[in-house]
Every structure is written in C-alpha cells, then in structure tokens.
Amino acid sequence: MTAQTAIVAGGAQNLGEHLSLRLSEEGYNVVVADLQGCKAETVAQKISNSTGNKTLGLETNMTDEDEVKALMVRTKEEFGTVDLLVYNAGVARSTKIDNFNLSDWQMTLDVNLTGYFLCAREASKVMIGQGSGNIVQINSKSGKVGSKHNSGYSASKFGGIGLTQSLALDLAEHNIRVNSILPGNLLESPMFQSLIPSYANKLGIDEDEVEQVYKDKVPMKRGCTYDDVSNAVIFYASEKASYMTGQSINVTGGQVMH
C-alpha cells in the first residue's frame, strides 16, 4: 500500500513538530512547511532519523499566495499526492482592545485565517484532482468562546470555524473532508508561556500563579497536551471518521462543551 502524504503547515516547532513526528509514526510521508525554513529542515531530518519514512522540510510563508502554490507543487512532484493538510500555523497577541495595534490585528488575521484559506484552497485543487483528501485546521477553544484581551486571536479563530464549514460544503462532493480541532490551553507551549505576563496583569495575580488558574477552569483539572491534539488529528484524518465533515471538535477537558 502506497504511503499517504501529509503537509503540516507550521510544522517546525512545538505542537507542529509533535504533529509532524506523530504523522510520520502513523506511516505518512510528511512535508514540514514553516516560515522558519532551517527549523523545518531540522524536523524533517529528525523524522527521517526516527522513523525512516520519507519527509521534506520547506520554508513557506503561509500568507504568501505564490509560496503556498509552490508548496503544493513541490509536494505533488516529490510524493505524488496531497492526502492530508494540517493547518497549524498561528500567532497570538494578548492586548486589551483600547491598546490593540492595527498591525497586530492584521498579522493575526493574515496568519490564522488567510493562511488557512490559501493552504486549503491550493491543497483542495490537488485533492479534487485525485478524488479524495482531508483538511484539518488546528483552531482553539477561543474559536467558540470570546477571549478577554485576545480579540484578534479569537476573531480569527471564529472565522476559521466558518471557513471550515464552508470548505466542507464545497468539497464534500469530491470526497474531501474538512474539520477543525479546538484545543484547550496548551500550558507547556511556548505560545502560552509567552502570554503569561499579560495574563498575570489581566488577572491581577503573580506570574507563577497563572498556570494553576487556567487548570482550575478545566473540569478535568489539567492543561491540554500535544498528544491530546495529535490523537484527535489522527482520528479525524482516518477512515474511522469517514462520515464526519464540517465539524469543530473540542479538545478542552470539558472547559468548552458546545
């Protein structure tokens, strides 16, 4: 059986690196696409050393139309198919609305929403031609519940859910499924850690108290892990989820239930 090919957009570090490695372990040829090209190549080499499966690291700006087109062309040339796109690229700026810079707002929408649109559009062209495919967006619980001091991030993630549903309707007739995964707080991730000072200020507490506050918000009393997210991605990309499309699946330990 020929191995399937997965592109992980934003796949060179943190959750993206974990997803890239996990997909290779599941038997996929993995294209690690990231703005940081050197890191993408490093992760690709790590995958090769770890699993021996085919892989490729490519520097790609997900907000650049020509670079995204080139990513799909190179993947198809190298591996023949684009079976799975995981859109994991994302940025966050935590600032109260009266001090939120337009440039930060625009960058957040560009990366989190427009980049998803471009990658999904170009991947869908290949998938339509081959008669099948899967697209999974890594969204956030902030895509269903507004987030204080995170207006740009939350707006981009709400938009991502609407885009996922619309893509699912566009592509169902081509045997292409589109779903979003909504993780809870990835407390150990560098993105969350970078926001701790602003969260401490927002909550009026010490920085070393922030993580516990966020754990206490979760019925299961822990943060979301990279494995929690990758398990959901693997499931929704598999035939076990063959009747599921247009869904936005919470992986939040019960913190968000709708």
UniProtKB/TrEMBL annotation:
GO terms for molecular function: sorbitol-6-phosphate 2-dehydrogenase activity. Pfam families: adh_short. Belongs to the short-chain dehydrogenases/reductases (SDR) family. PROSITE patterns: ADH_SHORT. InterPro entries: NAD(P)-bd_dom_sf, Sc_DH/Rdtase_CS, SDR, SDR_fam. This is Sorbitol-6-phosphate 2-dehydrogenase. GO terms for biological process: bile acid metabolic process. Its EC number is 1.1.1.140. Keywords: Oxidoreductase. The keyword Phosphoprotein does not apply. It is an enzyme of class 1 (oxidoreductase). It comes from Geomicrobium halophilum.
